Amino acid sequence: MLPVVAIGHPTLRKKTEEIGPDYPGLKDLIDNMFETMYASKGVGLAAPQVNKSIRLFIVDARPYAEDDLCAKDFVKVFINPKIIQETGEMWVFNEGCLSVPGINEDVSRRSEVELEYMDENFVSHREVFKGIAGRVIQHEYDHLEGVLFVDRLSPLKKTLLKGKVTKISKGEIDVSYRMTFIKK
């Protein structure tokens, strides 16, 4: 299991780099990311969250299958993704993040996202994702752009959460999975 970097870590704020099929240890990295995500009880994990500044994220939306049939068999790897467009109604949903443990807040996002990406075999795809799967994809995609879900909150909400975010960044929290913190 890989350690998850906490908010405050510089890798979470970097725009990531594309990779090719020759990226060293890619299959092992993907396998380790799935192991880390499952052990942390997440539904998505982006490479920056495990201190890799590359355009890669994974999603397993099956925990939401009871609420969203599209999530029933949704397990995917996304390499070098690019959002083509976000469409549909704005949809508020309570989000959390393995890099920001203990904070869950309502975030507004579009209900559909069209994405170009490569799978783990570097086969190109262009698809529209809706519902929970689309939501998780947008959240993980943000990580590749150096954006966290807390960045999408209102200025007031950010101010109210500032103390808690600072404590998380310093490691002054209890979590059930391995994390890396910036020592101040």
Mean pLDDT: 94
Strand content: 25-35%
CATH class: Alpha Beta
| CATH topology type | Peptide Deformylase
Could you characterize what this model shows?
The protein has 184 residues and is α+β, with helices and mostly antiparallel strands. It is built from three helices and seven strands, in the order E-H-E-E-E-E-E-H-H-E. The protein is globular. It has a five-stranded antiparallel β-sheet, sandwiched between helices. A two-stranded parallel ribbon has the order 1-7. It has a single domain (4-178), classed as Alpha-Beta Complex (Peptide Deformylase).
Task: Put the structure in a nutshell.
The protein is 24% helix and 29% strand.
Sequence-ordered SSE layout with sheet pairings:
Layout lengths: L3 E2 L20 H14 L4 E3 L9 E5 L14 E21 L9 E14 L5 E7 H14 L10 H16 L8 E2 L4
Parallel strand pairs: 1-7
Antiparallel strand pairs: 2-3, 3-4, 4-5, 5-6
Essential attributes:
184 residues, alpha+beta, Peptide Deformylase, five-stranded antiparallel β-sheet, two-stranded parallel ribbon, 7 strands, 29% strand
